[in-house]
Amino acid sequence: MLTKGLRGFDAATVEKVKELYRKPGLTYREVAEELQVSLSTAQKLIKKEIPSFTAFYLGKTVSFVRKEDLEVFKEQYKVERKTPIYDKETNSFLFQSFVHSTTGELARVTEVSTDGDVLAKTERGTDLPLETLVSTGYQSSVQLEEKTANNMRGYCVFRFVKPSHLQSPIYDVVEMFSN
Amino acid sequence: MKLKVDETSIEVSVKPTLLLLNKEEHKSAIDLLHIIALKRR
Predict the structure, then answer these.
(1) How far is CA A168 from CA A93, A137, A138, in A?
(2) For a tag on chain B, would you pick the N or C end, based on fewer CB atoms within 10 A?
(3) Could you give the ipTM of this predicted complex?
(4) A158, A159, A171, A172: which to substitute to probe chain B, counting the most B Cβ within 10 Å?
């Protein structure tokens, strides 16, 4: 029984409307979030490597990616993905140097994982998580500043043999260019 | 800057304009590159 002024719908109509509003796949933004890349990188990947389709959704034609297609791509992307070099949360980067405030000993970031784990190696060869490193008295020797992106074309590429010691000037070059 | 790292090498890619900027830190980086290049000769 319906109260006056209220309109009722049968279950079939509700299901039909629900179906109309159901998102048929993942949006580009959702793909970017899933892959932990920027929206523009996701767009490039979708254009070249991830199958997509268009569908009419919420009054307009929108491009979507099927979840299964993204899963297939993710497996392959995991292997190809470049080494992470920067951790936003701690504002630290690969090969960043730290100096102990009292002993002057050097330590460097040796690993940045996609999960946000940052590992550093001290001059004595001890591997420590960044948090522990800082709590034991090491301070960063550089501070990253917020800068506008340089969108000029092209790159100068320098390839070095990976140094075996933390004091190598090769690491200093990387650090200087990072900043 | 882009960085590619594997077991044996480190590859740094920087925008050429960055190298042309007259900034002290970049000049120092170029000096260091010279030192590294000379050492490897």
Answers:
(1) 17, 22, 19
(2) C
(3) 0.72
(4) A158
